[in-house]
Amino acid sequence: MAIRKNMYEYFSNLRVPRVLIGTSPFVAGGQFGLRAWEYYRRFVGKSEEVAEIIEHCIDLGIKGVQVLAYDYIVEAVKKAMDKTGIDLFVVGTLIPEDPQESLKLLIDINCRIGLVHGMLTTPRSFRGVGRHLRLIEEAGIIPGVALHNISALEAILKEYPQIEVVMAPVNIEGIFMNNKEKSLELLEKSGRFIIAKKVLGAGRIEPERALKYVFSLSFVKSVAIGVASRKEAEETFTIAWRILGVKGDISRDLSGTE
Question: What is the pLDDT of residues 167-190, one digit of tens each?
Fold first, then answer.
């Protein structure tokens, strides 16, 4: 499949960057194994350290961020945008324990797409999903879901057809995807705007191979990639721009609207 050579996808009157900074390293996600403790020590609760990484990503041409709506991460995004003068396109994920407060934080950074957390979208239970979707919609934000398990997709879309965006694991090795081929089929036929996460398999897949694969999938419209250092950011995003055939230059026109 030919790779689309563009930096944005147009969706629901929005211009969505095809590459987003992911924030999982900044919450020391368990998928990082032994590195999770290092990430916890370096980033959790430390907005200045997180902001420094985000600022460098902006300098490399990144136009958007996928935000797990913890206060220190939102504060870091605000600091990075204030320092660089760049308004990032924000895709935000509500925190299950306090969706209303996390939504307030996301509104404060002009979140355009809001996601229900993957903890609530398991194949066994969708408890809380409807309430979180209503909060997102009432705020005038495009509603979506994050999935840990793609096998839940058909059922959750049947129950909540208002879902417009799906963020889910997609990578060449099928890591975190359970049945890779079935998962890809479900995502493709969903007809939703798909954001791929875990495209590097939490650091297990070499960036060139990982990104060539995910960008070749026509139904994947955007990818969220977490980086934990300036060096990782430079390596990963330089490869992304080369594959996409674009320059990651900084543009002031990042409002997110057509």
Answer: 999 999 999 898 999 999 999 999
- Contacts of residue 140, Cβ cutoff 8 Å, sequence gap at least 6: none
Each domain of the chain, given as residue ranges in start order, spans 8-244
Enter the pTM of the model.
0.93
Pair of tokens at residue 56? 């460098």
Convert 43-67 to b/e letters by CB count within 10 Å (16 or more is b): bbeebeebbbbbbbbbbbbbbbbbb
Please tell me whether residue 69 adopts helix, strand or coil conformation.
coil
Apex 36 CA angle, 33 and 37, nearest 5: 120
Tokens of 96: 């299950």
Cα separation, 219 vs 195, in Å, equals 9
Residue with tokens 């954001």: 195
Per residue in 196-229, pLDDT tens?
A: 999 999 788 999 999 999 999 999 999 999 999 9
CATH of 8-244, one of 1.10.1040.10, 3.20.20.100, 3.30.559.10, 1.10.606.20: 3.20.20.100
Say if CB 250 and CB 63 are below 8 A apart: no
